[in-house]
Structures are given as C-alpha cells and as structure tokens.
Automatic annotation (TrEMBL):
It comes from Sinisalibacter lacisalsi. The keyword Oxidoreductase applies. The lineage of its organism: Bacteria, Pseudomonadati, Pseudomonadota, Alphaproteobacteria, Rhodobacterales. This is Oxidoreductase. PANTHER family: D-ARABINONO-1,4-LACTONE OXIDASE (PTHR43762:SF1), L-GULONOLACTONE OXIDASE (PTHR43762). InterPro entries: ALO_C, FAD-bd_PCMH, FAD-bd_PCMH-like_sf, FAD-bd_PCMH_sub2, FAD_lactone_oxidase-like, Oxid_FAD_bind_N. The keyword Flavoprotein applies. Keywords: FAD, Flavoprotein, Oxidoreductase. Residues 14-181 form the FAD-binding PCMH-type domain.
C-alpha cells in the first residue's frame, strides 16, 4: 500500500495536520495495513476539530471503501463498508422504501464517522442516536485482529466503539437497521418564533418526528432567541424541486461576516417565513441535509477557519441555555449558523454526546475574542451539568471533557485493551489526555 505525504484538516480548518495517508480500496488492503503499519482512520473529514488528525504520523483514508455488502429489502437491514456516505444511503434506498434511522445535517459523513461520533439528527427525541441502530460493527485492530461487536456480543467493546472517536479499532463495516419511509419526500412546517421562551415551548409541544430550530444569534432584548422552527414528517407525493447546490469558490475575507453584515442577514432570514407560517413538501435530502445546499461553506469563514460551539444542557437547566444565548447575542460574534434542537435520552456509547435536554450549535469565526467567549460558554455548560460534543470541540481542556463524560475511564480502559501501544491515538486524544498512552 502506497503512503503519500499530504496536508489535511478538519472541517473547521483551525487544526491542521501533515502526515502520510493511505487510501485502501479493499478489505484485504486494509487488513494488511492494520497488520503491518497500524494507524487511525478518517472519512470525509466532516468533524469540525482535531478528532481525525494525526499530525506527524500516519492516517488511513477510508473513503474508497464504500461498498454495499448486503441488503434485506424486507427488514431494511443493510451492511456497508465504513466509507459509505450517509447521503448515499438516502439516495440509494429511499426509492426502495428505507432510509437510515438517524442522519446528521449533512450527507457527506461516512458510516464509520457516524459511529465514531455516535451522531444525532433532527429526530433524536424520537429515535435516539446513530449507534442505537447499529446491529453490529466489524473492527480491525492493530496487529490485524478482526473483531465483531454488537449489543449482545463483545458488548463492552461495542459501547466503547459507539461514539468512541476511533480508538477501539478501524471500522471495516457495519450492519445498520434502517427505517421505513412512505416515499422520497418530507412535509415541512415552518413557524416564525418570536423569542427563546417560545422556542422551548414549541419544541416541547411538537408532535413531529423531525424538528430543528434556527436561532438568530444576534437578536437582543425582547427578541433574544427568535428564529424559525422546522417540523417535518416523511411522506409520499409531489414535491417542490430542490435548487441545485452552490459552491463557495474561494476563502472570503474576514469582513464578509462582520457583525453588521450578520445582523442584517439574520433579520432578513427570520422574515423569510411569513407570520402565518409555511408548509411545503420537498425531497428528503433537501430537508435533512441543509448544509449541503452550499458546497465548501466552511470557506465563508476565511483561511483562519471557524469554531463551532455545541453543547447540550438538561431540561431542568434550560435557564442556563437561555443565559448562553443571551451572552452570545450581546457579544456580536455570532455567525448566521445557529441551531437548537430538543434531545431525548438516547445514546449508544460511553462517550456519546446526547442527554435529555436542549442542544445549541453555533459557529464563530476563529478569532481570539471568540475563543474567550467559548471558554465562558464552556464554563456555563459545566455548571449546568451539560456536555460539549467531541465531534465539534476544538478548544476544551481534558479536565473539562472528563468532568462531562463520567464513563471516560471505562472507555479508556477498553481503548487500551484494543490498542495497547497507542497506535490509534489522534491529535484530539492527545490534546484532551483521554488515554494513558497519550
């Protein structure tokens, strides 16, 4: 297998790495790599931070290992290689009546990446996290050992792998339980929301299986926390034609997302939904993958990149989330991208992010003032008994993360069993001192 030296980065482009990359195309090639030159794996590099980086070392690019290995049209069980993209599963199987049970806000992440971060979607309050719909996973561990784990077989290893940021072995393949869909469309109801308190009330009262809110991170005073709530259901029938995706061709200058510009954009975007609301039918991908309408949108933040702060706080501490939104709105640092969702209890792994409560995700251009603000928001999250998402965080300390994830020691012990020499350790694991060999 040929190793090629290259530069690469996470989606936020704040952390970067340079090292040797191998791109296997067959299971036999991957097995040989893990036997002779073990290394951590990466997919489409849609994690925002350094969880996929191994600066100065080797990394295995799994994107060419994207085959469908088996599919049962009666049960919706599909077995795929780890490099299969989530959006491809929707494209291929929705016309046949099945889609993945849980999808993120973009279709580009791989199944391996979805497992490594136990991703969640707009229906978490109903169906939980991605890992809860993984029937089994096949791992290749350093030295070439091949292990199958499931909720019933090697179940501790399975829990350490779901959301386990790739430290228990390179994921070769997985069996997934998909859910039935009556068609290739979604019926989407949009509601203009006046403030934060109304937002939480509407999220709590929603009876839809999919819901997500966009928040105007610049609104203050009585309008603080205003936004747009989108509620949706899978359906069949005529749909409006989705607009083609647009590509951001170059890195924008820093002033492109200045505070006045963002404030004007957000105000206009909020008003795009009439006060009476709006209902439309659209392709599934057009609703569940809104980030894919703009290719390379991370270039909007310029060469310095951006940070995304994503937290979840328990239901009983929603007042702290309100304080977090208020602090962001007063800072003048918010970007147009800010999302709020209601989460249920579902989580599949020891380091899985979700808890029952509310999750907020918001982007900030990478600037010193933003890092100071994010540190304050992290402290508020800790105080509220919440968590930061390991697929997004690029700034937190190991002590902060360990305080949020009480099972991290059990996870670390399982990672050490699978990888005693620390050959799968990545930059994020080193930054947060999550493993003893780090």
């Amino acid at each position: 297998m040929l190793w090629k030296t290259a530069d690469y980065a996470g989606w936020g482009r704040v952390h970067t790495a340079r090292g040797q990359i191998a791109r296997p195309e067959r299971a036999a090639q991957l097995a040989q790599l893990m036997e002779e030159t073990p290394a951590p794996a990466m997919g489409m590099r849609r994690s925002y931070n350094d969880s996929l980086l191994n600066d100065g070392g080797r990394i295995i690019d799994m994107t060419r290992m994207d085959k469908i290995l088996a599919f049962d049209p009666e049960t919706g069980v599909v077995e795929v290689e780890a490099g299969m993209q989530i959006g491809e599963l929707v494209r291929l199987f929705a016309p046949r009546g099945w889609i993945p049970a849980v999808v993120p806000g973009t279709g580009f992440p791989t199944v391996g990446g979805a497992i490594a971060h136990d991703i969640h979607g707009k229906n978490h309050h109903v169906l939980g996290s991605f890992g809860q719909h993984v029937l089994s996973v096949t791992l290749l561990q350093p030295g070439g050992g091949r292990v199958v784990a499931s909720p019933a077989r090697n179940k501790t290893l399975f829990r350490a792998t779901m959301g386990g940021i790739g430290q228990t072995g390179v994921i070769l393949s997985a069996r997934l339980q998909m859910i039935a869909t009556p068609g290739t469309s979604m019926r989407v109801k949009e509601t203009r929301v006046e403030n934060f308190d109304e937002f939480l009330a509407l999220l709590d009262a929603s009876t839809f299986r999919y819901n997500v809110g966009w928040i105007d991170g610049t609104a203050t005073g009585a309008a603080m926390g205003r936004g747009i709530l989108e509620e949706a259901e899978l359906t069949d029938g005529p749909q409006r034609r989705a607009l083609p995706a647009v590509t951001v061709p170059l890195d924008l200058p820093s002033f492109a997302l200045s505070a006045p510009t963002v404030k004007l954009f957000n105000a206009a975007y909020w008003r795009k939904v009439p006060s009476r609301g709006n209902v439309s039918v659209m392709p599934i991908a057009a609703h569940v993958f809104p980030l894919d309408k703009l290719y390379d949108w991370n270039r909007l933040y310029g060469k310095r990149g951006f940070h995304q702060f994503q937290c979840v706080v328990p239901v009983e501490n929603a007042d702290v989330l309100k304080q977090i939104v208020a602090k962001i709105s007063r800072s003048g640092l918010a970007s147009p991208l800010a999302v709020i969702k209601r989460m249920g209890e579902g989580r599949a792994g020891m380091l899985s992010f979700p808890m029952e409560g509310y999750t907020l995700a918001i982007d900030f251009p990478a600037r010193e003032k933003a890092e100071v603000l994010i540190a304050e928001l992290e402290a508020m999250t800790v105080e509220a008994g919440g968590r930061l998402y390991l697929g997004k965080d690029a700034l937190a300390s190991g002590a902060t993360i360990k305080a949020m994830y009480p099972e991290w020691e059990a996870w670390a012990a399982e990672a050490e069993k699978a990888d005693p020499e620390g050959l799968l350790i990545t930059d994020m694991v080193r930054r947060l001192h999550l493993r003893g060999t780090a």
